[in-house]
Design goal:
71 residues; alpha+beta; SH3 type barrels; 5 strands; 20% helix; 45% strand; globular
Length: 71
Amino acid sequence: MCLGIPMQIKKIDGYNADCEAKGVERKVSLFMMQHECLHIGDYVLVHVGYAIQKITSQEYHSTWELYDEIS
């Protein structure tokens, strides 16, 4: 099973972004979402270093609640 990690965009530089989730920061490729309008503060689902889907704030928080229950 593969999991997508919900993260918030903190900085955008071309097709790359600095994203954060629960205090952990990662560089994320936005290449697969190049036709999506993304801004600082938006939430994305990240899989193996690539943002694959834009999500809402509610989806971000709900997903982390579920992940916290699992762990």
